[in-house]
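At this stage, I needed to go through a protein sequence along with its fold in C-alpha cell form, as given directly below:
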Amino acid sequence: MRWKWPLAVALLAGQAAAAGQRVGRQLVGGQFLTAGLIILNSPQPGTTVQVGQKLSLSLDVSGDGLLPSPNPNVATTLLNLNIFLVSATNNINFSISQGPDLLSGEKGSTVKHADVDLPDCLPEGSYNLTFYELSQINSSPFFTIDSIPLTLSRSSSLSEDPSSTCGGSTPPESQPQVDSRSPIQPFSGHGQAAFVLSTGAKLNFIHLFLNLIGNATRGDERNVEYDYGRQRWHSDNNIK
C-alpha cells in the first residue's frame, strides 16, 4: 500500500505551491545536505548499485551534532521519514523505508543506518533515491521532498523478466511533487547551522501566533526580525 501524508501536510504543500518557493541542497565535505533536516552520508549522488545486492544508507539526523535525537516535544526535530527508490522511466516507486523504525532505531546514536536488499525484479536504469521528510523547525511544521540520482545495474548472470513485478513497488506519483520546505536551508555544512535552531521545548500555536503579531508590530524597526516558520534572521537595512 502506498504511504500517504495526512491532510495537514497536503495543506502545507498547497501553501508552498502558491508561494512558489524552492530551497536548494548541496554536497559539502562528502555529505549531501538536503533542504530539510536530513544529512545523507551515503550513498553519494550518482552511485551505481547492482540489482540483487544491498543498498547501504547512512543518515545523520542531528545536523552533525547540532540537534538531539528525534523527539516531537523538541522545537526542531525530525518527525517522520519515508524513503523510496523512484524511476519514472520504469514506472517504479519502490519502498526503501517507511514508518518510525529507521529514526527510532540505534538508540543513543544520531546517525542511522540501513542495508536494504534490492530485489532481482528491479530493472536497471536511472533512479532517484527520494526522501519524504516531515519535521518541525523552531516549532513550525515543514514537509520536504528531496532526492539524489542513483543508477541500478544488473550483473550478466541475472536475467531480467520484463513481466515480473516487485513487491513493495507502486507506480510513482506524478512529477514534480510539491512540498512545503523551509525557505532557508537549515544547515550550511561542517556542523554549522544557517540560522538559529531552537532545541528547547516545542511552542504551541498560541505562542507562535503571539510571536507573529509581535513581529508585525515591529515591522518598521531597524534590524527587523522576519519570522519564516520561526527561523529568524536580521537585515541591516530599513525595510518598509
Q: What stands out?
A: The first strand starts at residue 26 and ends at 28.
